[in-house]
């Protein structure tokens, strides 16, 4: 069931989203050659603690997961698409890093992700990340009252496919509110004019995921969480929590 939020609730979600935005900004600033993924997780934890916020990631265990998630961020490096568990791995020059983070504040959730490079960037990685951000921007532009979820999905898929990138099938965004994952699902590829109608008060986490090689294949890593590209090519992941309003889309996790 899709829950429509009041304007007051949307304002409360914005507060949670701002905590997420600050956490992601702090993590990106701290990410440098030699810094471990566990150290980045601690940076995010400190931001959440300082805001009096909880983490919807920590301890989360969906049906596919062998263990509860042990961190407050997902840290996915190079060929990892999403759901990477922070480890002692230390960042290297040229790494492509995707960080996903959530916050719970006042009974409401926010969820957002960024991708960036560490050290000297590879031109192909820069193009991949820029395309992911363009896909997210196009999706947000389509997130208006009167459109449908398929219009968001089509906007993402069009940008990604025209640039020659792959899209991992079966993964995408979701509704969000009192819980991190709510209805409806928001695919990263689809047909316009199809799917659930967008109405004032809906809140969606929109999250393009791109595979550099143009292939769509992926596999689960041994940890049971991390999704990696089948061919070892690099991936990017970006995300914002967005409210659907009569006045237009409102980004709740803007940084």
From TrEMBL:
SUPFAM superfamilies: Creatinase/aminopeptidase. It catalyses: Release of N-terminal amino acids, preferentially methionine, from peptides and arylamides. Keywords: Aminopeptidase, Hydrolase, Metal-binding, Protease. Signal peptide: none annotated. Substrate binds at residues 83, 181. Pfam families: Peptidase_M24. Residues 12-244 form the Peptidase M24 domain. Its cofactor is Co(2+); Zn(2+); Mn(2+); Fe(2+). The keyword Metal-binding applies. Binds 2 divalent metal cations per subunit. Has a high-affinity and a low affinity metal-binding site. The true nature of the physiological cofactor is under debate. The enzyme is active with cobalt, zinc, manganese or divalent iron ions. Most likely, methionine aminopeptidases function as mononuclear Fe(2+)-metalloproteases under physiological conditions, and the catalytically relevant metal-binding site has been assigned to the histidine-containing high-affinity site. GO terms for molecular function: initiator methionyl aminopeptidase activity. It comes from the Bacteria. InterPro entries: Creatinase/aminopeptidase-like (IPR036005), Pept_M24 (IPR000994), Pept_M24_MAP (IPR001714), Pept_M24A_MAP1 (IPR002467). A divalent metal cation 2 binds at residues 111, 174, 207, 239. The keyword Metal-binding applies. It is an enzyme of class 3 (hydrolase). Its EC number is 3.4.11.18. A divalent metal cation 1 binds at residues 100, 111, 239. Removes the N-terminal methionine from nascent proteins. The N-terminal methionine is often cleaved when the second residue in the primary sequence is small and uncharged (Met-Ala-, Cys, Gly, Pro, Ser, Thr, or Val). Requires deformylation of the N(alpha)-formylated initiator methionine before it can be hydrolyzed. Belongs to the peptidase M24A family. Methionine aminopeptidase type 1 subfamily. Monomer. This is Methionine aminopeptidase. It comes from Streptomyces cylindrosporus.
């Amino acid at each position: 069931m899709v829950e429509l939020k009041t304007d007051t609730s949307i304002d409360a979600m914005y507060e949670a989203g701002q905590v997420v935005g600050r956490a992601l900004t702090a993590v990106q600033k701290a990410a440098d050659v030699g810094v471990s993924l566990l150290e980045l997780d601690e940076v995010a934890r400190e931001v959440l603690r300082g805001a009096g916020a909880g983490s919807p990631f920590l301890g989360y265990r969906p049906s596919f997961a062998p263990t509860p998630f042990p961190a407050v961020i997902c840290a996915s490096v190079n060929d990892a698409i999403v759901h990477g568990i922070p480890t002692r791995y230390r960042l290297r020059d040229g790494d492509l890093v995707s960080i996903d983070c959530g916050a719970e504040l006042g009974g409401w959730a926010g969820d957002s992700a960024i991708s960036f490079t560490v050290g000297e960037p590879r031109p192909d990685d820069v193009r991949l990340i820029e395309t992911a951000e363009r896909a997210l921007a196009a999706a947000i532009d389509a997130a208006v009252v009167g459109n449908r979820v398929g219009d968001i999905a089509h906007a993402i898929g069009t940008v990604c496919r025209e640039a020659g990138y792959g899209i991992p099938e079966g993964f995408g965004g979701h509704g969000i509110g009192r819980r991190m994952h709510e209805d409806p699902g928001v695919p990263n590829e689809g047909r316009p004019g199809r799917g659930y109608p967008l109405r004032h008060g809906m809140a969606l986490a929109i999250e393009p995921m791109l595979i550099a090689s143009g292939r769509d294949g992926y596999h689960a890593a041994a940890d049971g969480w991390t999704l990696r590209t089948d061919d070892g090519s690099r991936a990017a992941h970006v995300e914002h929590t967005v409210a659907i309003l009569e006045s237009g889309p409102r980004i709740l996790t803007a940084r």
